[in-house]
Amino acid sequence: MTEPPQPPPNQPPPPSGYGHLPGPPQPGYVPPPGGNPYAQQPATAPQQQFPQPGYGFPPPPQGVPGAPGAPGVPGNRKPVVIIAAAVAATLVLGTGAYFAFGRDGGGSPKQPVAQGSTSADDKPSGSPSVDTGDGSGNGAGEQQDFNAGRGPGEDKVLWYKSAKIDGPGAGIPSKGQWVVGDSVVKAVGKSLVGYQVTDGKQKWKLDFPSDVCGSTDQTTGDGKTAVLLKQDDSDTADCNQLKLIDLKSGKEGWTKTVEQQNLFDTAISAYPSIVGDTVTVNRLISSTAYKISTGDKLFTGNVPEGCKPHAYIGGGTKMIGLATCEDADRTAEVQGADPATGKKSWTYRLPKGFTVSSVYSVDPLVIDVGNRDTKQRAILSLGPDGQKRASMSAEGSFGICPGGDEGRQGCGTSAVADDTLYLATASATGGKSNEIVAFDLGSGKAKWRTPSGDNTFLAPLGAEKGRLIAYRKSLSSDKGGEIVAVPAAGGNPTVLLHNPSGAASKVESAFYSPELDYVDGRFFLSVTRLQADGKDEKLLMAFGK
Q1: pTM recorded for the entire structure
Q2: Which residues share a beta bridge with 194?
Q3: Rounded to an integer, what distance in angstroms lies between the CA atom of residue 528 and that of residue 92?
Q4: Model pLDDT for residues 79-134, shown as the tens digit of each residue
Q5: Closest Cα partner for 156 from 196, 124, 178, 115?
Q6: Rounded to an integer, what is the distance from CA 15 to the centroid of its chain?
Q7: What does the pLDDT look like over 44-69, one tens digit per residue?
Q8: I need a labelling partner for 180 at 20 to 30 A (CA). Which of 9, 13, 223, 499 fits?
Q9: Within 13 Å and on the Cβ side, how many CA atoms surround 193?
Q10: DSSP-derived pairing of the beta strands 278-282 and 271-275
């Protein structure tokens, strides 16, 4: 294995980790189109909006509605699979599939338990029966009892929603899921729908003139978020209509058209990020910030000279800028930024050829960096002054985040809490299990590893009360998944919620690239894309005691 080239004098040392960075691709490597697994997806096509298989998890079983290859599923997933196969050839990069837990398409790291999760003994109130719906009501069509035939010790399906929508042949996006107070809100094409968490009854619905094309999982302290809408219904429409939404009441706030900063500032793909009273809209080469309370424009990344931020990303009370420098090498730079003004307070410049591929956390700051030419990669922790703290180092195969805008927030199978990065490995040999590895952000060393167990996969959801919360997905459609808690010091997982087997598990296993939330003892699972072929298809499923 080789180390990356040394940076110029007075620059930080090159990132190294995972027991040094991987060397050249091994035999059998097949380069993706363009030869660049770290590259941004083409701005001219919305492939990155499609759900991706994943991140160590296999696709749903064959023959299950909504699985890859099923009628109505877009046929352009092949480039994604090729990219995944390409990066699998190196030491620490993922195997041939991704499992995007709702961070794709403009999402940022979920905080599924931030609103207070109950203990394993707490029993939230549930629905007396399961109901199905069209995504906008309290149930329509034939109902199915998903709880019939539950096994001993298994919990239940609280409610279920389906959708029946006519749309274009490629389907429609359905990214966006928020749990706020007593509501779970779901994006459904041109709508946002708020449901009661206990029984799934519709509380409110907002209809928009065009599709929701960008969202963030972040919310303000009073339950507001920002979404992006397409300018119109054309395939090439910019994703440039920023709208403030009150998720508790279902009321719209202000709407702003995000203006181009220059001729090259395309917004076919964009995503927002929230910190304090600031929301930013991040695009391919530029970013614009607005004041949430008023909608006023605050600043842009179009600085007159030097290193120009193409993304401002918030977390907690802090913000960072991801910038490209106007030197011969187009060097990447991470900046500390003031959320109100964008003024930078510190900088960390990456070695030549390296870019930020994902931000796991802003506070503490943890970034995933890679070199598109050499296929080298590292995960770094930085201090509050931008100085490098450590490179994560451990044996194992850790998947690269799914494709999308470079620097996009969140990575699906990760969580950061208490100065620890929890990262899921890709599948072990044979694809029947994986592990969660806990990294000390101060030293970069692995503190402990927890195996998923046979025929299951573990993925972190968040951390609270001194423990990691994770989803343990069954690889068998005959068994339900589980929500488990792992002590912060490591150890055997404790089951908090055991989803039922039978009819329910067959539907659960068929959710493809889902969005997940575990809040107050309830588990919410929803799709990120709908086939929209005029037939009933699954949308949202809720589990509980």
Answers
A1: 0.76
A2: 185, 204
A3: 28
A4: 222 122 223 222 233 322 222 222 333 333 333 222 333 333 444 433 333 333 44
A5: 124
A6: 24
A7: 222 222 233 333 344 444 333 333 23
A8: 499
A9: 25
A10: antiparallel
Q: How far apart (Å, rounded) are the C-alpha atoms in residues 304 and 358?
A: 26
Residue the block writes with tokens 């591929």: 357
Q: Name the burial class of residue 383, with classes exposed (0-12), middle (13-18) and buried (19+) by CB atoms within 10 angstroms of its CB.
A: middle
Quote the tokens at residue 169.
């042949």
Residue with tokens 């990575």: 411
Helix/strand/coil percent split, the chain, to 5: 5, 40, 60
CA distances from 244 to 15, 107, 231, 247, 453 (A): 38, 16, 16, 9, 43
The encoded tokens of residue 28 equal: 């059998």
Spell out the residues 6+ positions from residue 51 whose beta carbon is closer than 8 angstroms to its own: 100, 104, 512, 513, 527, 528, 529
List of residues 6+ apart from 324 with CB closer than 8 A? 285, 307, 308, 310, 330, 331, 332, 333
Closest CA to 442 of 467, 468, 416: 416
Report yes or no: 52 and 104 within 8 Å, Cβ to Cβ.
yes
The 10 Å Cβ neighbour count of residue 485 is 24
Distance (Å, whole) CA 3 – CA 454: 36
Asked if residues 400 and 93 have their Cβ atoms less than 8 Å apart, the reply is yes
Location of structure tokens 């600085």: 303
CA distances (Å), origin 342, targets 155, 252, 308, 312, 482: 48, 27, 11, 8, 42
Q: How far, CA to CA in Å, does 413 sit from each of 7, 88, 403, 405?
A: 31, 17, 14, 18
